[in-house]
Amino acid sequence: MEVEPKRELCDTNQTPEKTPPLSLHHASSSDALGIVEAPENEEPIVNGTNNKDKIDDDGYLDSFPPGYRFCPLDEELVLYYLKKKVLNLPLPQNRIVEVNLYQYNPERLAELYKQYGEKEWYFFTPRDKKYRNGTRPNRAAMGGYWKATGADREVRFKDRIVGYRKALVFYKGRPPKGDKTSWIMHEYRVNDPPPLCSKKEGYTDMRLDDYVLCRIYKKVDKSGRTQTKTEDGLALTQKQERDEMMGSEDTMNYLSTMGMGMGDWKKMFGVSIFPHN
């Protein structure tokens, strides 16, 4: 089995191997983040370059063939992108933006990088600790916070764990009384990250990870509208499906076949087939 040569992870002066053309947002793994604190109404500063300067990414984006969609599987995201990123290896051509996403809310990120995604966006980002001596990540973001939902999911390749995926939801406001939004994040991390690189620009003792990979998207219903909640807490999509079911001819035929009537339906679902009955 071929073994890859060991690399000095923190040596930012080594000559990189040949890589595909990268935009300023797609710097090689040896480049520093160069991110500074900025209010929400300012552009992110990525790789030491202020986005307010004229940055032409058209050439890079046009290099993708017509009909190309960047939608890798979980194991592909971990093995071919995140793993290579943390090991300072050249990356395949991609649409992953490098930015500290916790300095912005998801709406702002989608607006800033709309040319990099239609319905979902991918980001390399560092994570900081919530407490200096702890290992919990700080989930606070501009105007809100990200809240984890459920346990981590293993990412496997050929029956081997290569990383983990965590699902999070964005809340506006301050915890624990924030307002839930439809923005979802899948956060990927490798299962055996290398030591933190203290030579990276912007490094502090609050740094938890140099890089994780995040996929962000806005959850919508089948009609293409963002899911909201009705007053009784029922998801709008569920209510629409129920309303359509109540008045359909197929439903009437089904009830007749099963020997059921309107009263049986009402007992089962708490509603009448005819709303005015």
Structural features, described:
With 277 residues, this protein is α+β, with helices and mostly antiparallel strands. It folds into two domains: 45-218, Metal Binding Protein, Guanine Nucleotide Exchange Factor, Chain A (Beta Complex); 221-277, no CATH class. Helices cover 19% and strands 23% of the residues. It is built from six helices and ten strands. It has helices at residues 58-62, 74-86, 106-112, 236-246, 249-257, 262-269, and strands at residues 45-46, 49-50, 96-98, 120-128, 140-141, 144-148, 153-157, 160-172, 179-190, 207-218. Strands 3, 4, 5, 6, 7, 8, 9 and 10 form an eight-stranded mixed sheet that branches. A hairpin with a 2-residue loop joins strand 5 and strand 6 (144-148). It is globular.
Brief rundown of the structure:
Helices cover 19% and strands 23% of the residues. With 277 residues, the chain is of the alpha+beta class. This is NAC domain-containing protein.
Unreliably modeled segments: 1-55, 228-252, 265-277
CATH topology of the largest domain: Metal Binding Protein, Guanine Nucleotide Exchange Factor, Chain A
Rounded average pLDDT: 71
Quantity of strands, as a count: 10
Using only CA atoms, what is the Rg? Answer: 23 Å
Class based on secondary structure composition and strand pairing: alpha+beta
Strand content: 15-25%
Approximately how much helix is present in the residues?
A: 10-25%
What is the H-and-E element order? EEHHEHEEEEEEEHHH
Distance between the termini: 72 Å
Structural shape: globular
